[in-house]
Structure formats: structure tokens, C-alpha cells
Amino acid sequence: MIVDTSSIAGYTIFREEASDAAPDLSKARSVHPLDQLSIEEIRAAAHLIRQHADPKVVKFNCLTLHEPRKLEYAAFRAGRGPRPDRRAFAIVLEKGTSDVAEVVVNLTKLKVENWKPVADVAPTLTLEDLDVCERVAIADPRVIEACREIGITDMAKVFIDAWAIGFDNRWGMERRLQQGIVYYRNSPNDNQYAHPLDFSVVVDTEREEVLAVDIRHVDGKRVPVPLREHNYLPEFVADTFVHDKLKPIDITQPQGVSFSMNGSELSWAGYKMHIGFNYREGIVISDVSMYDHVEQRDRALFNRISV
User: Fold this and answer.
1) Each residue's pLDDT tens digit, 143-166
2) How far apart are CA 195 and CA 224, in angstroms?
3) pTM of the model
4) What is the CATH number that goes with domain 127-240?
5) What confidence tens digit (pLDDT) does each residue in 9-42 have?
6) pLDDT tens digits, residue range 73-113?
7) Cis ω before 55 (30° cut-off from 0)
8) What distances in angstroms separate CA 275 from CA 30, 34, 66, 74, 261, one per listed residue?
């Protein structure tokens, strides 16, 4: 497995090699049923899904914990039921198409439990998907020509913000679409949002193809690039920035913090909860209780809450 820290700034990507064997989960330690999937569990789930899909090649849109059912988890917590099986949930696309399926993998039994094709949907765009839009668009002859017509010949100064548009009457649900909003940078750290260009692109994410270059004419003419700079980084405003506008704030806890962590379980001021996270909701707080000093027992507050 290759550890990649350079492809996407701020992220660590664990890339599997073709020679990597499927992980052995038989010796994995028991974890809290609501804990997020480990790297090895993610690899194992991906391996099982690829095997199930073969000979088709799939692309992963997401792969995350499939939480145990409420009653199943409650019985386990109360000591009335077995530990729930570990499961993973994935959204996958058949590579090169917009065909989508939702998959549930049982990691305890090492098998795909459910594979459900889903029609007329457009899964969320990933960071890799967003990269496709810019990479494909700035190399497209129609985009290069659209830039040349307004005086831009250096495509290294052209940048594209990709956005999901989901549906466009021109292609319906047959394509997984992105719309790219195009900007110009006069220097590497220039604020590109001061220089929007007068056109956008529509890209098929899966086929990596520019479908349209939509130019907005005003009175039948192209709109010149707004070149006035609006930059706020220190290198641009060092001579005018006032450093002593705000007085310092010091926040200290001389006796240490008031909370404690046991794995992903947090205890604080009589409250207990499990802290989780997923790609769609962000932070998920589960199994929330507080200690009742009158009745001298833990009182359940919430089974699961998220934003």
C-alpha cells in the first residue's frame, strides 16, 4: 500500500497496489460497534465489492460504516444481545458509466449482503471527481479557443471551480455532470475570484469529456477579463496591514481539561456520548446519556443526533 500525501493538499490517501493481498480481519481487535471503519476494514470491504462486481470495474463514491440497527445496538449495550456484526456501506459506480449501486458488506462474515442498483440519481462529487473537471477542461480545444478569444493564451493561469449540477435538460440523467466556473490568475497566489471569465463548461465526470462550453455574450460580444486585482495575502498587503488592531486573548485551563476520552467515547460533566463521523453528515453523536445525581443512575437522552 502506498501512502500519498501530495495528490490532494491536506489529505493522506492510502493507495492500494495490484499486488496487495486482501487484509486479514480475523485477528482485528473488537471495537465499539459505532466506531468508524479502520483502514484495514475499508480495504477488506473494497476487496469484497470488487470481487462481487467482477468482471465489471467499479469506482467508489463512498465507503463508510453501516451502523447497527437501533434495537440491535440497544440489546448489546444492555447485555441482552450479541455484539452486532461489523458492516460497511458503499456507493459505487460502474467505471465509465453513470450506473450506481448501493452496497452493504458484512465484515464479520466477509460477504456482500446487499447490492442494490439505484436509478435516476447523481452521487455526491468527490475531491477526485472535482479534479477531473479542471484537468479535462483546460486541455479541451474549445476551452483553449474560448480563452484565446479574450486574450488568454497561458492555460496555466486558468483555473476551474467545479460544481455539481445534477441535471441538465440537454443530457437528462444519462450523464453524471459537473459545471466548471472558470477564473484567471495573474500570479500564483492571485485571488482568482476577482477575475471570472465569461464562460462555463459542462463535463461528464465518468467519461472525462467536455460536453459544452457555454459562453455568455453581452450585446453579442465577449466580456473582457476583469484584471483589477483584489488581493489580501500578506505578500500583497504587507505595507498597509495594521498588526495591532486586536489585543491578544489567552484561554487557559491550569488544572487540565474537564473531559476524558475512551476511544471514541467522551465523558464530560456527567455526560457520556460516542463521537462518530461520516462523509455526509459530518459529526454524529450517539448513545448520549447523563448521570442523574438524584436517582444516582445514567439517564438516556439521545440515541443518535447529527446536523
Assistant:
1) 999 999 999 999 999 999 999 887
2) 10
3) 0.85
4) 3.10.450.40
5) 777 887 777 677 778 887 778 899 999 999 999 9
6) 999 999 999 999 999 999 999 998 889 999 999 999 999 99
7) yes
8) 17, 9, 15, 17, 10
Residue with cell 485477528: 27
- From 3.30.565.10, 3.90.1330.10, 3.10.450.40, 3.60.140.10, which CATH number describes the 39-118 domain? 3.10.450.40
DSSP secondary structure string for all residues of 32-76 = -TTSPPPHHHHHHHHHHHHHHHTTS-EEEEEEEE-PPPHHHHHHH
Q: What single letter denotes the amino acid at residue 125?
A: L
**One fold for 39-118 and 127-240:** yes
Between CA 98 and CA 96 the distance in angstroms is 7
**Residue 104 contacts residue 66 (beta carbons within 8 Å):** yes
Q: Which among 68, 234, 215 has a CA at the least distance from the CA of 148?
A: 215
**Model confidence band, residue 178 (pLDDT cutoffs 50, 70, 90):** very high
